[in-house]
């Protein structure tokens, strides 16, 4: 975890439950965590609890169903904390209703939180970041002219990532493993 010391992580749904716990653990190991959630009071309380840890927690009230809130949050993060290195898309809601009992408003709220909010946050977190080009022969076949600022990964980097995923305990499932060169 040393390589993450002082890096910026964004955790959505950070005011309670899994998001709060992930935020605590990341701050405990030295990351600067921006917690996004609607409940400003709980975010502030969590910030107070984490004041003496090695990292820092930044609460930012954000409604993940509102694109303008998400955009404002990421603009603030870039201007006040720094570039995002880690994004934990944790915010989510569910409705305990059958399809025939649900309302259009309920479905829109679930989709706006669980899908649209996640997509907007992901888009904002990865802007201007290397898409992870790998220095292989396929790049020359495809005439991929990679700008100099997009450093290429080595094939060994990808192989190491694969070994990492395979080396996780059996109860851990890695669904996405995105890597890029710093």
From TrEMBL:
| Gene Ontology MF term list | oxidoreductase activity
The text of the family note is: Belongs to the short-chain dehydrogenases/reductases (SDR) family.
> Any idea what this protein is called?
Farnesol dehydrogenase
PANTHER family, from UniProt?
DEHYDROGENASE/REDUCTASE SDR FAMILY MEMBER 11, DEHYDROGENASE_REDUCTASE SDR FAMILY MEMBER 11
A Pfam family this chain is assigned to = adh_short
Record bears the keyword Oxidoreductase: yes
Give the UniProt keywords, A-Z: Oxidoreductase
Q: Does the keyword Oxidoreductase apply?
A: yes
């Amino acid at each position: 975890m040393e390589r993450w010391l002082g890096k910026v992580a964004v955790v959505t749904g950070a005011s309670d439950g899994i998001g709060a716990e992930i935020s605590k653990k990341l701050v405990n190991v030295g990351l600067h965590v921006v917690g996004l959630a609607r409940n400003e009071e709980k975010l502030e309380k969590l910030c107070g609890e984490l004041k003496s840890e090695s990292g820092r927690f930044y609460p930012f009230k954000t409604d993940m169903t509102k694109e303008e809130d998400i955009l404002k949050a990421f603009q603030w993060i870039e201007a006040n904390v720094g570039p995002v290195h880690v994004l934990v898309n944790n915010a989510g809601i569910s409705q305990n209703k059958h399809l025939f009992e649900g309302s259009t408003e309920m479905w829109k709220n679930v989709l706006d939180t669980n899908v649209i909010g996640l997509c907007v946050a992901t888009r904002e977190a990865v802007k201007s970041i290397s898409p992870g080009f790998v220095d292989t022969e396929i790049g020359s076949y495809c005439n991929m002219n990679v700008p100099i600022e997009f450093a290429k990964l080595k094939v060994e980097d990808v192989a190491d990532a694969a070994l990492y995923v395979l080396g996780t305990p059996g109860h851990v499932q890695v669904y996405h493993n995105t890597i890029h060169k710093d």
